[in-house]
């Protein structure tokens, strides 16, 4: 993996009380980068250059604010939209884009659809598609860390729809019982594909589900980066001081489609979209920074420009990298390949060499 | 007759059944307003209302559990699992409950649920949007497992499934949802569950396949023909209960068998076919039974073309089988 | 199944405001019968005459009070301790005991362990062992009844431990979303085998989990039959008047072992047991009826006596019934046996006739 | 050496591993204070504390999900599922996560969990306390599946499993937990995963079995001996990865095979063995391959003796195999 980090200023070792103007600007810059990734990747998918993409637009403030409140030692268990979280964590943009291309430099060796990345060195666990499974896992890792007295938290990211999953229930319950130092971060973007939040569950808020597990529950405006930062920082402190886990509901909106396979016009109104567009976290943050004098229009232009350039360059590289080698198909299933897998690998090689299958 | 794609045929089958019987209800994720992520249920909520085409919360456990409850009551629920890969949260309900309800209640509680799910690779779905999990369910006593490969079979078998009295898992080959169109009879025309279809006659080797593996298998048979090898192609259509007679009859004639599926080889469905042949057609067999299958790995993303059996691999296996012995 | 019902007075078609003295006495009589079943069956198991038994002692008031508040049309989805519920429903004791013996008259044809019975004609759904699976099913049946405008409720019975199951979460969530006329009746008997209630979940009560699903939640003293009757009646009315489902937590105690395979001395104290024994629902009910003058000691003796006699007689019958026939093994898997099953049935018959296996 | 029952050997294996390595932790329902419903974990919470022998809430989803999280962190969790029949609520975590973590992460996240569960019939457990679900897991790429049949193997294989780096499903034949005692080496003596054991040499027919089917299979072999049929008995011990060489070598010698398991026949583990033989030992085979298995029904209560393969059924099958061809 390339060395350079995309994080302008890395998130602090110990989250401070409040974000400084410099940090806010750095956070904004990452939000701009994340939005740019979205725009570019939606286009790449339309052009057939990548196979799939699930955008995060509307969720940038929640993701960046949340990730900023964590320490690099904390374990992140993402769903599939957490690109901004990865960027805050310091995952190089190149690594993310390589994953989208599934090329020979992709950390997960071209095995997964775009958005399903993971980077052990960044304690950013490799995503999977079945929703919710990361939740119990994050609790298990937190239990292990607590056992080993490592002062860290684990955090799982998931959406409003995923509160209905089996692992949500089991994960929060185990976390409560074992007082695992774990944070559950719901990005309630109001939709689970075509199902609106009100028909996902009848509770008034998602955060109040915490009560069922005897743990803390907090609702936060996910369009407000500083507010998110604050509740996550508090949750982190609570977890580490023995106060138990916290369920956080960040209220955001999925401004884009569920994924490139989805057409949201089928199920939601233009009016609803327009209303939420008026609360775009990027516009809001920009306005805030402009008013406080911590950002100029010129700087803003620069951020967008450098994001686009950076993207152009990593995409160029990703497209120049050769595809993963056929033999990788049989790697990493077990620590050491079994005789049967060796035999199948040989069979595939034979088929390739005889031209029965094409690489 | 209408010229339909496979997914349209599924849609028409559902529509047909729902028009004929108010007890047929659909439930699942994104099947209503959105018409299903593959559009299999397109237009049905509009026609039949949100009471009969139910958008559920994101819980396969809930979908199958409540569908069972509806079936106990006397409805004919047809739940959809959005991708077969996401059926596992419902595995307990399927294996412990759906499959065993009639039996464990001494026949008091039939449990007629038709569980639909698109399955299989070839759509660049990676590990979690490509699986072929049929063997788990074929191994589960008490379930019927059906996989169509043509638009006409899709509609006809689905209608039979909905008119059956037992739990049916109906797996749809999403790779060929739109690949071809075919003539589909209008109205309530059923294709019986439990009968395989000989889609091509042959004398030298039997090729067994189902679902999305039928097109490459047929292509292989054509290719073999040009080499002078006459291949019989059997589309199993129902994996459980298997049309054992069709399988045995074919191999008694050809003496050779190649089995094709997308799922991993080890303990895959093909193993059962081979085992039945090795027991009941042993003295007819002239050559080793070959399996052309997915590898014993998870389903990959970038290299899916190397994972999925193609016509050439089938030809390759059939050729060596035909020459052996 | 035998025709005679064991219910002295059947539960009323429409539950009344409060139970009359006659009804209370009848309810008490059923509690005595249930307790007698327990005592007798624990002994039968020790003697090797039945294979297993899971007692309900300590939970009689909760079960009888609850079942009494239902109408015969309501669907019951039991766990595995709901013997008193079945008796209230009118299931003949003979049928229950036949099930324990798995004999040729057993409704479930000897296929299940004792306690796993079911009687379609009584809308008492056949139990299974995996905990919680009945919960979503009961919700589905309620949704169906609502669709068909049949004015009934469904009720699922389960224990404190089962609140941790996947189906608890899915079932309550679906019930909330679809406003299913369903009641969830937790018998919190304080233990899930060896796990005490406090370590099952960190919520203060189990009933408050209702909030997570936007439905009503009620705690009730499960040792108090009338109180239980009242909350269930209210929940039933709420469900049918469009007020949605209710989660009821009846606080009881499992006075006996988890099952005949269990030794509670390994995990709980004599002191705890003694304390709860002091609140035995049968003693309490008896005391209440004696004080109100609605029961005499003589009547009480009579109830115990007739229960024992009835048991002796049904056990005698159960032991005289032949075992289920081998061929039943292949029945009821499908509506019509498949060719493969026919072949296996023939294979077994051949093996039997050749003496390879013994009936 | 100690004379131990199989369940005691499991207990000693756990104790041995926990003494040697503080990263080994146990979790499950009733495993702590209660020592497990079969007493497999008896005394361990006392010795190692409630932090390393964790009584969990009643959720198999939670048990396996958190165990995976612990494994990612670097611990060596050994969760217990109380009965294999109750593994299904964890099926998603096992099949989607445990089996695929290393692969889907490109090798970054090994996921070393040893999932223990008692399996099988013969204890009057009915449908839900008797199942043999091994085929589901053997079909799942990425899992190892181990089933011991003797006290020594139980301890030795369990130690190997805990020292492995891959996910291992360790299924214990509860029917013979206490049926016999056997000599078990003290200390860290391991039996390698992936090797079958020839428990009886023979020349006329190969009998393949595992777990609780080994005693009746051995009894059958003795009985066959007295009829002049020399039966070789192979205890597979590891179902995945299979010791294919041992299987093929035996049948190359005997030319005849009988496969024994408790699980239903259709798509059961025996199918894979038959398929491998029909492909790779075809020209050695002299007679149809027979399977002696549970019927294709759920597991019954009152009639379990008619469901479970016994020595006589095995003899019956072996005899007809030996005479055929
Ligand atoms: C177990 C499972 N079932 C179904 C799906 C298909 N699916 C993918 S995302 C999604 C909706 C998720 O909604 P939410 O949790 O709100 O997250 P969001 O996509 O809105 O970020 C569904 C149904 C899945 N991935 N996993
Ligand atoms: C899915 C599942 N896991 C484990 C078991 C084993 N088991 C049977 S009963 C039980 C405890 C149930 O506790 P609770 O729900 O409180 O009911 P109670 O027995 O106390 O009435 C357990 C763990 C099971 N039956 N099903
Ligand atoms: Mg959402
Ligand atoms: Mg309990």
Structural commentary:
The complex is a heterotetramer, with 2 copies of chain A (359 residues) and 2 copies of chain B (325 residues). Chain A is built from 12 helices and 7 strands. By secondary structure, chain A is α/β, with parallel strands linked by helices. Chain A has 2 domains: 8-324, Rossmann fold (3-Layer(aba) Sandwich); 325-359, no CATH class. The model of chain A is unreliable at 1-8 (pLDDT under 50). Chain B has 2 domains: 2-184, Rossmann fold (3-Layer(aba) Sandwich), CATH 3.40.50.970; 197-323, Rossmann fold, CATH 3.40.50.920. Chain B has helices at 6-20, 44-48, 60-73, 91-98, 101-104, 134-138, 151-163, 214-226, 244-254, 269-280, 304-307, 311-323, and strands at residues 2-5, 24-28, 53-55, 76-80, 114-119, 144-146, 168-173, 181-184, 197-200, 205-209, 231-235, 238-240, 257-264, 290-294. In chain B, strand 6 (144-146), helix 7 (151-163) and strand 7 (168-173) form a beta-alpha-beta unit. Chain B is globular. The relative contact order of chain B is 0.12. The model of chain B has no long low-confidence stretch (mean pLDDT 98). Chains in contact: A-B, A-C, A-D, B-C, B-D, C-D. The structure holds thiamine diphosphate (2 copies) and magnesium ion (MG) (2 copies). One thiamine diphosphate sits between chains C (81, 129-131, 158-162, 189, 191-193, 254, 258) and D (29, 58, 60, 82, 86, 89). Residues 159-161, 189, 191-192 of chain A line the site of one magnesium ion (MG).
């Amino acid at each position: 993996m390339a060395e350079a980090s995309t994080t302008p200023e890395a998130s602090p070792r110990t989250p401070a009380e409040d974000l400084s103007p410099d940090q806010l600007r750095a956070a904004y810059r990452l939000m701009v980068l994340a939005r740019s990734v979205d725009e570019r990747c939606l286009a790449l998918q339309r052009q057939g250059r990548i196979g799939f993409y699930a955008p995060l637009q509307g969720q940038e403030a929640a993701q960046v604010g949340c990730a900023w409140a964590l320490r690099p030692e904390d374990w992140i268990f993402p769903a599939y939209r957490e690109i901004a979280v990865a960027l805050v964590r310091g995952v190089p943009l190149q690594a993310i884009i390589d994953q989208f291309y599934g090329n020979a430099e992709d950390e997960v060796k071209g095995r997964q659809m775009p958005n399903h990345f993971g980077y052990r060195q960044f304690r950013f666990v490799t995503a999977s598609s079945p929703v919710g499974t990361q939740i119990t896992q994050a609790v298990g890792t937190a239990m292990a860390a607590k056992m080993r007295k490592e002062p860290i938290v684990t955090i799982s990211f998931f959406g409003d729809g995923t509160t209905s999953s089996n692992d949500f229930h089991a994960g929060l319950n185990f976390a409560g019982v074992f007082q695992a130092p774990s944070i559950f971060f719901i990005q309630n973007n109001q939709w689970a594909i075509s199902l609106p939040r009100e028909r996902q569950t009848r509770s008034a808020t998602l955060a109040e589900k915490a009560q069922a597990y005897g743990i803390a529950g907090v609702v936060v405006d996910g369009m407000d980066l500083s507010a998110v930062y604050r509740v996550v920082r508090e949750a982190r402190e609570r977890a580490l001081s023995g106060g138990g886990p916290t369920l956080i509901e960040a209220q955001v909106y999925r401004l884009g489609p569920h994924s490139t396979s989805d057409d949201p016009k089928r199920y939601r109104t233009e009016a609803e979209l327009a209303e939420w567009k008026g609360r775009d976290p990027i516009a809001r943050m920009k306005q805030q920074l402009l008013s406080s004098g911590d950002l100029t229009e010129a700087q803003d232009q620069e951020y967008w420009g450098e994001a686009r350039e950076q993207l152009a360059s990593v995409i160029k590289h990703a497209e120049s990298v050769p595809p993963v080698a056929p033999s990788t198909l049989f790697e990493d299933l077990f620590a050491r390949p079994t005789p049967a897998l060796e035999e199948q690998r040989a069979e595939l090689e034979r088929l390739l060499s005889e031209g029965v299958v094409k690489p | 007759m209408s010229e339909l794609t496979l997914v349209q045929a599924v849609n028409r089958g559902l529509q047909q059944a729902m028009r004929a019987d108010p007890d047929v209800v659909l439930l699942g994720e994104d099947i209503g307003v959105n018409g299903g992520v593959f559009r299999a249920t397109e237009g049905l909520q509009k026609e039949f209302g949100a009471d009969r085409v139910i958008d559920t919360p994101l819980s396969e456990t809930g979908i199958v559990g409540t569908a069972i409850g509806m079936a106990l009551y006397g409805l004919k629920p047809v739940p959809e699992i959005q991708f077969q890969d996401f059926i596992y949260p419902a595995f307990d309900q399927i294996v412990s409950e759906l499959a065993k309800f009639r039996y464990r209640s001494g026949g008091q509680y039939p449990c007629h649920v038709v569980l639909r799910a698109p399955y299989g690779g070839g759509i660049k779905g990676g590990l979690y949007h490509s699986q072929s999990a049929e063997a788990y369910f074929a191994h589960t006593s008490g379930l019927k497992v059906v996989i169509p490969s043509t638009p006409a079979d899709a509609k006809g078998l689905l209608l039979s499934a909905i008119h059956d009295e037992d739990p049916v898992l109906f797996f749809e080959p999403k790779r060929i949802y739109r690949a071809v169109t075919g003539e589909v009879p209008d109205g309530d025309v059923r294709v019986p569950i439990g009968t395989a279809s000989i889609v091509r006659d042959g004398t030298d080797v039997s090729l067994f396949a189902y679902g999305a593996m039928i097109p490459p298998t047929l292509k292989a048979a054509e290719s073999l023909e040009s080499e002078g090898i006459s291949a019989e192609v059997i589309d199993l259509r129902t994996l459980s209960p298997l049309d054992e007679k069709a399988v045995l009859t074919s191999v008694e004639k050809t003496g050779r068998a190649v089995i094709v599926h997308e799922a991993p080889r080890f303990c895959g469905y093909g193993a059962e076919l081979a085992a039945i042949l090795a027991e009941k057609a042993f003295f007819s067999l002239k050559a080793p039974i070959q399996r052309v299958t997915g590898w014993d790995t998870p389903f990959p993303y970038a290299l899916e073309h190397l994972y999925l059996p193609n016509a050439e691999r089938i030809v390759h296996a059939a050729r060596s089988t035909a020459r052996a012995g």
